[in-house]
């Protein structure tokens, strides 16, 4: 089942509806998971990733507090282990939202700065550190960047 989340966006609730969705399986249609939303909506993030299995086509990562991976409480090591179990080898895309303002900040209702230093240099440094953290925790130490 697909549920409208907001205008022009459909949200698919994995653990509750994947079995129903399998009846309508279309090979070209893949699942996108987002750890921030899974943290809110799923009973068990790891089980939801396992259930998506080889249908997982895109993976967004963000902390429970919208910060960069490694700056919150998400179980990244376990998430990485499950991604390995299902042989996920596609993009992992960070999706932090740490500053109010701009169209994106207004659209998702960021109401306060989530980091002390919002200079471009600091934001770039934090992003680089988070990429390195994910590479280490997910077991990908290659120089290949996605």
Explain the overall architecture.
By secondary structure, this protein is an alpha/beta fold. It contains six helices and five strands. The chain has helices spanning 14-22, 35-41, 45-52, 76-85, 102-107, 120-138; strands spanning 3-6, 9-11, 31-34, 56-61, 92-94. The strands form two sheets. Strands 3-4-5 form a three-stranded parallel beta sheet. Strands 1-2 form a two-stranded antiparallel ribbon. Strand 1 and strand 2 form a beta hairpin. Helix 3 (45-52) packs parallel to helix 4. The two termini are 30 Å apart. The model is unreliable at 1-14 and 141-146 (pLDDT under 50).
Topology:
Blueprint: E1 3-6, E2 9-11, H1 14-22, E3 31-34, H2 35-41, H3 45-52, E4 56-61, H4 76-85, E5 92-94, H5 102-107, H6 120-138
Parallel strand pairs: 3-4, 4-5
Antiparallel strand pairs: 1-2
Helix pairs in contact: 3-4
Question: How would you sum up this structure in a few lines?
Answer:
The chain has 146 residues and is of the alpha/beta class. Helix content is 40%, strand content 14%. It is built from 6 helices and 5 strands.
